[in-house]
Amino acid sequence: VADALAAVLAGAVGPHAGAWDLSGEIPGDVLRALGARGVLCAAVPAEYGGHGLSALTNGELTAGAGVLCGSTRSVMTSQGMAAWSVQRFGDDKQRTDLLGRLTGGELAAVCFSETRAGSDLSAIGTRITEEDGGIVVDGRKVWATAAAYADLLLVMGRHGAGAAVAVVPASAPGVTVERIPAPLGCRAAGHSDINLDSVRLPKEALLVGSQLPASMLATIALTYGRLSVAWGCVGILRACLAAAAGHVRDREQFGTPLADHQLVARHIADLYTLERTATHACERAADSWDRQAPSLASDAVLAKYVAAGNAAEGSTRAVQVLASAAARDGHVVARAYRDAKLMELIEGTSEISQLILARRALEEAL
Ligand SMILES: Cc1cc2nc3c(=O)[nH]c(=O)nc-3n(C[C@H](O)[C@H](O)[C@H](O)COP(=O)(O)OP(=O)(O)OC[C@H]3O[C@@H](n4cnc5c(N)ncnc54)[C@H](O)[C@@H]3O)c2cc1C
Fold first, then answer.
1. Residue with CA closest to ligand 1 atom 7
2. Is the CB of 118 under 6 A from ligand 1?
3. Tens digit of pLDDT for each residue in 193-212?
4. What is the DSSP letter of 95?
5. Residue of the CA atom closest to atom 29 of ligand 1
6. b or e along 118-150 (b: 16 or more beta carbons within 10 Å of the residue's beta carbon)?
7. Are strands 162-169 and 152-159 parallel, antiparallel or unpaired?
8. CB of 143 shorter than 6 A to ligand 1
9. 112 lines ligand 1 (CB under 6 A)
10. Which of the residues in the chain have pLDDT under 50?
């Protein structure tokens, strides 16, 4: 199944990633077709319409998307995280309905961040209140990946003494989606800010099991996202390695291929090492997910921290090796360079990852 899904992805993206990056748009019908084939959330169990891929197999699929197109991979991460949140927090009726839609071609975005609540999601101001047998969602979200394409918005808000997630149709009265113009990277991923102005929904829109303290809710949802982003970074590194290896074999300077210059070869060795270590960290975290190991949340943080740092470093090395050949907007390595930096910011910045890893290290040292 995974090979067939990888072929569907490759066929859909084709040679278009550079053009999508320049235009800032992936054609909606391409994303919907990928969604309808279940590629964007391939870990959803078969009983809910998905392919039931293991975290390891889904991870390799995600890395493959990362090789092809950072924006498509970003949409895939959002869709997968939305599906995981429904699977984890929904009751059976919500799972059947919503996962069926997410594996049937509808698209979703995860809306947690706010202007005053980035790293600190406990500071969110959006409110989900129960009123007249339904719910009302009020607030403003920022930087939701894929929201420009999404049919469904998973909105985290204050609810009672804690937090909860409401599934808000993007077409509901009171919802306004404002696309963020010209983001630094993953430029066709449809990042948007969202206004929620007294959005009235039936009570079924509240994910039943999501009524938790904000930090616990965020950690559960973000663990999927962290693992997915980490695999996406492996994809960035593989794209950079392929481009750099091809270039140093083909291009000669001083009468010999660049690969024969030892200072260039060192960059290739380092790129290879960065890709391998990121892959190993991802494999380890995916294995923890598949075994539901107690360490899985911090293993995902470790994988994301390592892979994002490696992708930022590796893409910088690739630019250095290709030099002017990569210094053009739309070139695969130029895209990788811009996309990779963002990976150190999302799903918990590198500093937030370090804080979590420091806590784990201190616990293990006891
Ligand atoms: C491309 C992109 C896609 C995104 N997609 C989504 C999405 O789909 N859904 C969504 O909800 N959000 C999304 N976000 C938002 C993202 O989750 C936040 O940008 C991220 O959590 C960081 O928050 P912030 O930008 O407000 O930075 P801040 O939290 O203001 O942090 C600024 C700096 O301070 C550091 N810092 C903050 N607190 C601490 C601390 N306690 N100790 C040490 N350092 C600290 C940070 O590491 C960072 O370096 C996206 C952002 C980007 C750029």
1. 144
2. yes
3. 999 999 999 999 999 999 99
4. I
5. 119
6. eeebeebebebeeeeeebbbbbbbbbbbbbbbb
7. antiparallel
8. yes
9. yes
10. none
